[in-house]
Write a structure and sequence with these properties.
By secondary structure, the chain is α+β, with helices and mostly antiparallel strands. It contains nine helices and four strands. Strands 1-4-3-2 form a four-stranded mixed beta sheet. Helix 1 packs antiparallel against helix 4, helix 2 packs antiparallel against helix 3 and helix 3 packs antiparallel against helix 6. The chain starts with a strand and ends in a 12-residue tail after the last helix.
Length: 305
Amino acid sequence: MAHDHHHGHAHAHGHTAYLPAALAVTLLYAGVEAGAGWWADSLALLSDAGHMLTDALALALASAAAWAARRPPTTRLSFGLQRIEILAALGNAGFMLAVIIGIAWSAADRLLHPVPVQGLVVTGVALVGLAVNIGVAWLLAHGEETLNTRAALLHVLGDLAGSVAALASGLVIQFTGWMPADPLLSLLICALILFSTLRLAREAVHALLEGVPPGLTLPDVGRRMAAVDGVVSVHDLHIWSLSSRRAALSAHVVVRDLESWPQILAETTELLHSAFDIDHSTLQPELFRPALYAIREPESPRANP
């Protein structure tokens, strides 16, 4: 059995410095928006502030997970803590679902029991919030791309949509006085966030279940491996995610000559790295035995008595 490991992901670590900056900005403005929402009695602003607080928690989890993922392996955790970012992404999705339920409940109550909202205050604060969210989204979009940072970016993009909805709510109330706009647009925020949250949760669960990473298919990888000179076939092929940036593979490789295995191993691991970005592979050679791999003729069906 042979192993091959490439470690070419260290260059992206510096980008995680964007996470603490995004966390600080988000947390600061969440407090401002919560105070303005309470003063203006705007559910749209309060729900957006609550969303921003979960953004701050998401960014804190993302920062902690990015730091933990770089910790070296131990005798108890031979792969280190790389998969903790997947757990953090799943946790963030859970927090988002809780926020969605809370906003929807409050919006339904506000529709049944309308209260006056100060549209001018909502408009002004929502404009500032929109600018803040665009800045934070830009920071995250220019950092390293992992499932974890995608989860944090999802929070911010959802909050950006919330700022747009709050802005629309303030303008409608300011110019028409129609108070149901506030809870209705809050429900729109919920719908926008829910779709992306469920998609993120599905991807995180898929990774935890060791599913084949997105962009890879077992048949395609298997065919390319079997096409290497000297390889007869590939079986017991498994591909899974160690983290959102690192895939692992194991397989049994049937070869015609075991003496050529070192060359086949080198070519196969280079193929996996260059064509599929798989840097961690465990390949077990098996000698081709024609008697075992011969195609058997199907038995003749027995006549019915």
